[in-house]
């Protein structure tokens, strides 16, 4: 079973990938219109309510990048990569994932646990390697 901390890290990673925080997510016309609205003190358009600070979820980019490096690693099998991407980033139904990846019927949770375990093992391995490199530089 996946613990809550790991699940929260994976959701953070997925949110960072979904929201494309490294790229502008708005088209230039939308940015221009919003700047005009702000400049002239106009209210938001209908159906476009302003997000209050409690509605906005903070994304930990450093942790998301650690998971991204592990995800891009060649040590993680492609089936696990596909499963993690489909379930967390694309939010695909587990039954659909089983069908698309040709997994046995009702084995999604088992495969998900294996994929998460493999991903977290790579993350911890990368952190240990980074820690060992930084401690050897001090000598």
Briefly say what this structure is.
This protein has 139 residues and is mainly α. It has helices at 4-19, 28-39, 61-72, 78-89, 94-100, 108-138.
Describe it.
By secondary structure, this protein is mainly α. Helices cover 65% and strands 0% of the residues. The protein has helices at 4-19, 28-39, 61-72, 78-89, 94-100, 108-138.
For the largest beta-sheet, the strand count, sense and barrel status come to: none
Structural class: mainly alpha
- Sequence stretches where pLDDT stays below 50 over 5 or more residues: none
Radius of gyration: 20 Å
Q: What is the first-to-last residue Cα distance?
A: 41 Å
Task: Report the portion of residues in β strands.
Answer: under 5%
- Overall average pLDDT: 83
Shape: flat
Helix content: 55-70%
Order of helices and strands: HHHHHH
Number of strands: 0
Alpha plus pi helix count: 6
Write the layout of secondary structure elements.
Elements: H1 4-19, H2 28-39, H3 61-72, H4 78-89, H5 94-100, H6 108-138
Helix pairs in contact: 1-3, 3-6, 4-6
List keywords for this structure.
139 residues, mainly alpha, 0% strand, flat
């Amino acid at each position: 079973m996946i613990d809550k901390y790991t699940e929260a890290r994976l959701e953070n990673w997925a949110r960072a990938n979904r929201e494309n925080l490294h790229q502008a997510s708005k088209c230039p016309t939308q940015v221009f219109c919003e700047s005009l609205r702000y400049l002239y003190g106009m209210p938001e358009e209908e159906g476009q309510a302003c997000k209050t600070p409690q509605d906005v979820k903070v994304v930990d980019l450093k942790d998301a990048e650690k998971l991204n490096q592990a995800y891009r690693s060649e040590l993680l099998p492609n089936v696990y990569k596909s499963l993690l991407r489909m379930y967390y980033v694309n939010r695909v139904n587990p039954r659909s994932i089983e069908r698309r990846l040709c997994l046995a019927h009702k084995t999604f949770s088992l495969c998900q646990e294996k994929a998460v375990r493999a991903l977290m093992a790579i993350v911890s391995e990368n952190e240990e390697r980074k820690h060992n490199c930084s401690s050897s530089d001090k000598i």
